[in-house]
Each structure stands twice: as structure tokens, then as C-alpha cells.
Design a protein that fits this description.
391 residues; Farnesyl Diphosphate Synthase; 0% strand
Length: 391
């Protein structure tokens, strides 16, 4: 059986332990858990008191800007994208890694990049005569957002709807300006650009059944599988569609003295395992919506809900191992747990499949995930009680 179709949890191989400033020794057992608990508390406190207010400020700015879009369809898509603030706030969590001197610019870049991603994703799902080409053209904006010297591009060239009064270009410029101010971005930019290029390709090929289905996506992803990763084609595709590597690289750029080797190690630490887990959990939440849109979920390629839970648990284990070799490894693990909890606490995760995944990931990631899920559920309940959606 080929690596692209085999789904046993034993297929995933452990990533190399060599690389970026690897920590010579790591505490184990109770000491490890205590250190992780302390980091969890400190990270959440820093996020809630310093980062989240900045994220909300940026979101408020883009909401006001979206209201001025003259085209009704584009305005609706922009507002819908910003309403999904959970993943935008999640992007902001990476700013807890940035030094205080450059945290504001880091937040601005993270919020702008994820807001653009959400908006472009919404647009690419709308009817189009050339869905793949239109999706690729729209998502060129993600590449420009990481290239301060990029030439002007007509992102709407193949899109049926136009006239956003400069909304998308303003997001692109905000992100590009913010990353350009980060001390190490020049050294990390080419790697960040390649990570964004993976997103562009995934978004162009991940079509619903009315647009042509996943045949081209399967062919491309099968060719992209790297020896030793042990991923199925849909897991490789899922990894490509994740923005986690870009977020991690933006946050890292706020530190001085990083080089191209560091950039590649950061990218490799998040791609493919954490990225695949990220996108597949997003698919888990979107199961019902995907059926309504005739979009085939990547999760449908697993043989059973039990197989899904085993595979996602294995991805989580490998993701933890990969990011464990980075500096500030505990903070990266907190971010991983928070990302998982955002999805697993969603009301849509009331199915037997989702419950099996939740149980498997909780056993793998331990107390930080249990605590984070409880925190997100409490927040969702608060927003429901106050009749304010949280998506």
C-alpha cells in the first residue's frame, strides 16, 4: 500500500531532533509538567492583558474599513471573514512570543494576514467561471502581504465581483508595512513567502464538487509528500493550507539575530504536523457546512471516526515533538493546545467523531488542552448568554 493511502497511525515518523538552537536538556515528568503549567499561565495572562486588546483594536479598524466597501457581495464577505474572529485572535496568540518592543507591529501583521486569509477564502468559495485560476489570483494577496516591495496586482482580475474601495490592498499594505518593521524579517521573508505559497496552491485546488472537486488537489498533494513524513495525501494538503507556519515566522521576525537556517527550522517545526492538525480540526468543525456547500471534507478520506481520532492524535504527538526543539518550546506547546481547544470547544463538535477526536487529543496533549477547552467553552457560553456570536 502506498504512503499516500495508508492510514495506520504507525505510518507517521518521528521528525529529526537536530536543528534550531536545540535545547540540550529537557526536564521530564513532574518538572516538565510544572514548567509547562507555569508557561501556560504566564502566556494566557500576557495574551489577555497585553495582546488581546491590541488584536481587538486592529479588528475594530478593519470592521470600520469593511463597512465602506461599496460592493454588497464583497462587503458581506469581508464582514463574514472578520466575524470569524476566533482564528484571528488565535493568530494573535503568536505575538506572546514577540519581545515587547515589537509586539504591536507583530500583532498588526498577524491580524492583517489572517483577516486577509479569511476574506480570500470566503471569496474563492463564491461562483466563478474559473474557480481554480480565480482562487489562485485572489490569494496572490497573501504573497504580497509578506513582500514589502511587491508590485501592484489586480487580485480581482478573474473575480466576478469587484469594487472594494481598496479594502484588500489596504490589508496587504498594513501587513507588509508591519513585517518590514520587524528586525529579522528580511532573513525570514523567503521562507515565509514559501509557506504562504503553499496556502495559495491549496486554496486554488481545494474546490467543491460544483467547481470540479479534489482531483487536482489529490494529484498535487501526492507529489508534495516528503519522504519520512508518513502523511496521506489529504494530510499533506491540509498542512499546506494552514497559516501556522506563517504566524510563527512573523512572530519570530520580531527577535533580532535570526537567520535563514532559523527560518527553515521554524517552518519545518510547524509544517507538516501542526499545520495538518490545524486544518483537519478546522474541517472537523466545518463538517455540516461542507455538506451544505457540496464541499468534500478532507476528513472523509479516513476509514472511520476511530481512524480519524487515531491519526489526529498522532499528528498532535508529532507536532509536539517538532515544536519541542524550538526556543520557547513550552510557549509553542501552549499555542498548539490553544489552537486545538478553539476548535474542540466549538458547538459543532457535538458528534461522536468529534468527541472521539477530543478524547484522543486530550490524552495526547494533557492538562493544558483540558484547561484550554474549559476556558474556551466558558467564553462561548458567555457570548451566547450575551447574544454575541463567537466563531
Amino acid at each position: 500500500m502506498s504512503i499516500a493511502t495508508h492510514t495506520s497511525s504507525s505510518v507517521l515518523q518521528r521528525p529529526s531532533r537536530t536543528g534550531i538552537k536545540s535545547q540540550a536538556t529537557r526536564p521530564s515528568g513532574a518538572a516538565e509538567q510544572l514548567a509547562l503549567t507555569r508557561t501556560f499561565t504566564a502566556t494566557i495572562a500576557r495574551y489577555a492583558t497585553v495582546v488581546l486588546p491590541q488584536v481587538r483594536h486592529e479588528l475594530a479598524h478593519w470592521r470600520r474599513r469593511a463597512e465602506r466597501i461599496p460592493n454588497a457581495q464583497l462587503r458581506h464577505s469581508a464582514q463574514l471573514a472578520l466575524a470569524k474572529r476566533g482564528n484571528i485572535e488565535g493568530a494573535g496568540l503568536f505575538a506572546t512570543l514577540a519581545p515587547a518592543a515589537h509586539r504591536r507591529e507583530t500583532v498588526r501583521a498577524l491580524v492583517a494576514f489572517q483577516s486577509a486569509y479569511n476574506y480570500l477564502d470566503a471569496l474563492s468559495e463564491l461562483p466563478s467561471d474559473q474557480p481554480a485560476a480565480n482562487g489562485e489570483q485572489l490569494h496572490q494577496a497573501l504573497l504580497s502581504a509578506l513582500d514589502p516591495g511587491a508590485a501592484d496586482v489586480d487580485y480581482y482580475a478573474l473575480n466576478p465581483e469587484r469594487g472594494d474601495a481598496g479594502y484588500l490592498q489596504s490589508i496587504v499594505e498594513a501587513c507588509a508595512s508591519a513585517v518590514d518593521s520587524l528586525p529579522s524579517f528580511q532573513a525570514l521573508s523567503s521562507t515565509a513567502h514559501r509557506a504562504a505559497a503553499r496556502i495559495v496552491r491549496f486554496q486554488a485546488l481545494n474546490l467543491n464538487e460544483h467547481q470540479g472537486g479534489q482531483h487536482a488537489l489529490r494529484q498535487w498533494a501526492s507529489e508534495e509528500i516528503r519522504s519520512g513524513d508518513g502523511l496521506a495525501w489529504w494530510e499533506t494538503a491540509a498542512a499546506a493550507g494552514s497559516s501556522l507556519s506563517v504566524h510563527a515566522l512573523i512572530a519570530a521576525a520580531a527577535d533580532r539575530g535570526l537567520d535563514l537556517h532559523d527560518a527553515r527550522e521554524i517552518d519545518r517545526s510547524y509544517d507538516p504536523f501542526a499545520g495538518a492538525l490545524h486544518s483537519l480540526l478546522d474541517s472537523l468543525v466545518d463538517r455540516r457546512e461542507d455538506r451544505q456547500r457540496a464541499q468534500r471534507s478532507l476528513l472523509e478520506h479516513y476509514r472511520s471516526p476511530t481512524d480519524t481520532a487515531i491519526r489526529l492524535s498522532t499528528l498532535a504527538e508529532r507536532a509536539g515533538d517538532s515544536i519541542g526543539r524550538l526556543p520557547n518550546a513550552h510557549t509553542h506547546r501552549v499555542i498548539l493546545a490553544a489552537m486545538c481547544s478553539y476548535y474542540l470547544s466549538a458547538p459543532e463538535c457535538d458528534t461522536s467523531e468529534a468527541q472521539a477526536v477530543t478524547g484522543a487529543l486530550t490524552r495526547t496533549l494533557g492538562p493544558p488542552l483540558r484547561v484550554a477547552i474549559a476556558m474556551f467553552r466558558a467564553r462561548r457560553l458567555f457570548h451566547a448568554a450575551t447574544r454575541r456570536s463567537y466563531t
